[in-house]
Design a protein that fits this description.
Shape: globular
Helix content: 40-55%
Strand content: under 5%
Number of helices: 10
Length: 230
């Protein structure tokens, strides 16, 4: 197998193969594949290619000996490796995004976030595995649920107040700008847990307690901020 990093030509080839007649329009787009793999690579438990490849192809009843399947599989495995290497090195991953219309003024972050959430669901229950840090994980994932509209949908369904349009627009714009950092931080959260718990004799600091570093800020706004949970 070729382990070299993907080139622009390779990405173009992936797009072309995903659009092949073989998949009858059921295959994921490259943006969705990248988002899903960012979650798969970050997962607390391994997710094998045999689990996520059929999702990319849009089914597992395709002819295994089709040349498109073989070529695309090799390219996708390299993409998976590239993403894993980048996140491990803390380099962050720039999201692949497609414009929402011909003006190219807005890009489909919602679809990217939705594919990430889908990828997270391919592993065991993230919240259950997070244990006592499930609340921290929930805060880390919240931007994804804002981008894909799930939080707003839940709020409206439950009759809860949602952000005014202008405030929501600012919030979404901030999340979009920081999406690579958000993805990296979620990866770091699980990487830290895979490395084993850190034993400390110090009393646990509450999220709303003054930060022990002496900054005067609340712990959740300082050393307990999601950006520092790594």
């Amino acid at each position: 197998m070729d382990h070299s990093p993907l080139t622009e030509a390779d990405f173009d080839r992936i797009e072309s193969l995903l659009d092949a007649d073989l998949f009858a329009g059921n295959a994921m787009g490259l943006d969705e594949v990248q988002a899903m793999l960012c979650a798969v690579v970050s997962a607390p438990e391994p997710v094998q290619p045999s689990e996520w490849l059929p999702e990319v192809f849009g089914g597992d009843d395709l002819p295994a000996d089709a040349p498109e399947i073989a070529e695309l599989t090799q390219l996708l495995l390299r993409l998976n490796n590239d993403i894993a290497a980048a996140l491990l090195a803390g380099e962050t991953v720039a999201p692949i995004l497609y414009p929402l219309d011909e003006s190219c003024e807005r890009y489909d972050y919602a679809l990217w976030a939705d594919a990430y959430v889908f990828g997270a669901g391919l592993a065991e229950d993230w919240y259950e595995l997070a244990g006592k840090r499930a609340e921290d994980l929930s805060e880390l994932l919240e931007p994804m649920f804002i981008l894909n509209g799930m939080l707003r949908e839940d709020a409206e369904k439950n009759g809860e107040r949602w952000f005014p349009p202008a405030e929501e627009a600012r919030l979404v714009a901030d999340i979009e700008e920081n999406l690579p950092v958000i993805v990296q931080t979620i990866y770091n959260f699980w990487r830290q847990r895979r490395s084993g718990p850190v034993v400390s004799d110090s009393p646990k600091v509450g999220r709303n307690d003054p930060c022990p570093c002496g900054s005067g800020k609340k712990f959740k706004q300082c050393c307990g901020h999601p950006d520092r949970l790594n």
